[in-house]
Structure formats: structure tokens, C-alpha cells
């Protein structure tokens, strides 16, 4: 049984590598069509609720927004929409924008597209070699790729940096405002001169406990009042994301940060805002 499972996994990985390497067009288009339909359905359902009702929002028009939202993968379109809304909430707050964990860069393109009209820089952090090993704070909660253990996720989700650049080129985001910072993010990395001095919005999508906690600690020292942090995978995939967020918000206290978890149907993420 185990041998059959392993062979199945090896075969699937090989097939995915071939598809990626050849960029088989028909497969891509089929996949995109399905993503489009699913994403539009979720967006429309989200807009009909009070939490993210489109009529309550005062967003500037943007020709690319819905096209990009229709193609998000990994992140739900409702979560991506919450990212957009948050970016506009912090528009007048001093500070750049960061994404911690970018993979293929579709969320990065959504963020960049909303920053086009301002002057904020976009900082993108990733190893581009996939997930690092988990810590003992990470237990497998949802086996999203059916790999059987949390350790087996080491190296998964690797995407080349060129893929991210391609996504950003599509929307013609000014090159001088992009900082793609390759490497394994940790507490020491957070001290480096490559980090932004001030951050008004951050999307943390590192999946595992330690880098999420390190990113939150970095942001604590660099985020002005009113700044917003969205952390993906709260109570999903690894137990680490929820642990890091709960620990951080508890330690800093209710007077320093407001904190809420998104409704179940929107996705698995938490929104933290610095209030003092
Ligand atoms: C879930 S993916 C990001 C998906 C992306 N935000 C999106 O919505 O399309 C997680 C990414 O985090 C990166 N990552 C995880 N831990 C990291 C760390 N300590 N340093 C740098 N990159 C890391 C992985 O390489 C992977 O690309």
C-alpha cells in the first residue's frame, strides 16, 4: 500500500515537473478556465455579505483588478480582495509594502497593481527554493498536498524568481520600486540593511511558525500606527501560523494591536492592525 502511494507520488511529481518545464498551453488554459470560474463565484458570494460588501468600499477604479483576482491560486479571491482593501486603508500612512512568501508572485501582482498610482516600494521576500524545514511548533493540520508528514513539505512550493518578475512585468510595475529579496528570512535576516525602514502593510504567507514570528517581530519595530498585517493560513495547513499570531498578539496586548480572524468562507487568514 505504502509502496503504491510512493510510486503514485513520484509519478505525480514527475508529471507536474514536465508540465511546468514545457509550460503545456492547453493544460494551462484548462486550469485557468477552472480557476476563473471558481474565483468569480467566490468573489460574488463574498460581496453579498456585510463583511466585505462592495457597496461599502470606496476603492479607486482599476482596470486590471478583477482580471488579477480571477487568477489567484493558493490565496482565495476574497482574501486577495481584503489585501486590496487594506492597501487602500493604509494609502496615507507612511511606509512601504512587504510580502513575506511570494512563490509564483500572483498575489505580488495584485498588490503591485494597487500600488501603481502611489510611490510606495514593494519588498518581496522568498527563498525561491520552497519551504524551509518546519520547527517543532509546526504540526500538520491539513495535508494539502497529501504528503503524509509536515517534514515532507520541506522544499515544496519552490518557484523561480523569474516567474515573479514576469507577473510584475505584465502590469508594468516600475522596476525601481521593486525589491525582490532572495534568502531564508529569520531574525538575523530581519536586521539586515536590505529591510525597509517603515512598513505600512504586510502580507505574511510563510506557512511555518518561526519565519512568521520573525516577520511579526520585525514589523512590530517598523510599522507606524494604523499599519495592517494579514497573515495567511491561520489555523490551516501547519499549526504554526496560528501559534505565531496568537502568541504575538497576546504578548503585545489589545492596546497595541486589534486582531480578527476572517469568516470561514473567505479563507484562512487573520488581520492585525497596529493601534498604538
Ligand atoms: C504559500 S507560498 C506563498 C504564496 C504566495 N504568497 C501567493 O499567495 O501566491 C510560501 C512561500 O514562502 C516561502 N518561504 C517560507 N519560509 C520562508 C523563509 N523563512 N524565508 C524565505 N521564504 C520562505 C516559500 O519558498 C514559498 O514560496
Proportion in helices: 25-40%
* Strand/helix succession: HHHHEHEHEEHEHEE
Which kinds of small molecule does this entry bind, naming each only once? S-adenosylmethionine
What is the CATH superfamily?
Answer: Vaccinia Virus protein VP39
Overall outline? globular
CATH class: Alpha Beta
Number of helices: 8
Gyration radius from CA atoms, angstroms: 18 Å
Percent strand equals 5-15%
- CATH architecture classification: 3-Layer(aba) Sandwich
CATH topology: Rossmann fold
Biggest sheet, in brief?
A: 7 strands, mixed
Separation of the first and last Cα atoms: 56 Å
How many discrete domains?
A: 1
Task: Assign the structural class, choosing from mainly alpha, mainly beta, alpha/beta, alpha+beta, or little secondary structure.
Answer: alpha/beta
Q: Can you count the beta strands?
A: 7
Strand arrangement, largest sheet? Answer: 3-2-1-4-5-7-6
Residue stretches low in confidence (pLDDT < 50, at least 5 long) are none
| Integer average pLDDT | 89
What would you note in describing this structure?
The chain has 276 residues and is an alpha/beta fold. It has one domain (2-274): Vaccinia Virus protein VP39 (Rossmann fold, 3-Layer(aba) Sandwich), CATH 3.40.50.150. The chain is 40% helix and 13% strand. It is built from 8 helices and 7 strands. The chain has helices spanning 2-22, 25-47, 65-70, 77-89, 106-115, 161-170, 209-222, 240-252; strands at residues 96-100, 122-126, 178-182, 199-204, 228-232, 257-261, 269-274. Strand 6 and strand 7 form a beta hairpin. It starts with a helix and ends with a strand. The site of S-adenosylmethionine (SAM) has 22 residues, from helix 5 and strand 2.
